[in-house]
């Protein structure tokens, strides 16, 4: 396998023919993430509707034969503007996932972004756990996430425009 330059942040965006508040409501109802994401299969521990800042939930993920869960906490919940949550595993920081919503003529530009938080002294442990649980090498995680973002945004677009 050829070497890959590791990236700590990636983002993807798509135009959705729906108002920012409607797109935000769909994304912030994190229980629906299993419908959009190719990796997340379920979310538990949060009530129906848009999650509020400070809300905690558990995300269940699958990639091929690999199945794992993560702890999540909503850190930004600004209707029609931004939604983001921090992800941990066994108390270790893993990532920040978020969405920005920008109005455009006839709809919304939705940008999904990811920042790898597995840095520093304890980051190596989180990277090792990530490799074990997801089957993805840490230096390729950004590539997997970028592909997942494209699929997530395409599914979100399709659902909201149909």
From TrEMBL:
Pfam families tied to this protein:
Polyketide_cyc2
Name recorded for this polypeptide: SRPBCC family protein
